[in-house]
Amino acid sequence: MIGERIKQLREDKGYSITKLADLAGVSKSYLSYIERNVQNNPSLQVLAKIAFHLDTNIEYLLGEELPPRVRVDEVLDEEWHSIIRNAVDEGINKGDFRALKELVRSDKWQKERSQSKEYRQVDSSKKSNIIILHIDN
Question: Phi and psi for 90 in degrees, rounded to 5?
Fold first, then answer.
């Protein structure tokens, strides 16, 4: 199943097996083995590399019935373009964006974020009893 999905997505993008192998940084023969289901247990790292260049995700390659990722030009409005342009102007590169995406998706960040929200909610419910008086002479 993994091999069939990879092959179909590769052909849909118009990539040869050589091109996808080069883009993903895997050998052509290994990719061929995956597509022909000779190798039916590739590592998640290899699948992640392949999925990225096929504009999909690992879950879809593994059999989830999620559609492949939506094309960027179909969802990026002018605000997104502006955000990206500003980030690039400030020196953020593709690797930084990928790292940021992984950080946002990580369980650790999600947990820290929810704990931070809980902390802010607790703090915002506290009232201060301090009164500051300023007297001019």
Answer: -85, 0
Using DSSP's 3-state secondary structure scheme, residue 22 falls into: helix
Domains with residue ranges and CATH for the chain: 2-69 (1.10.260.40), 73-125 (no CATH)
Return contacts of 38-46, CB within 8 angstroms, 24+ apart. 40/2, 40/3, 42/2
CA separation for the pair 10, 107 (Å, rounded): 31
pLDDT in tens, 36-69: 989 888 988 999 999 989 988 888 888 877 655 5
- Phi, psi at residue 42, to the nearest 5°? -70, 155
CB atoms within 10 A of CB 5: 19
| pLDDT at residue 121 is higher than 90 | no
Q: Quick check: helix, strand or coil at residue 9? A: helix
CA distances from 19 to 54, 68, 70, 100, 108 (A): 11, 20, 22, 27, 35
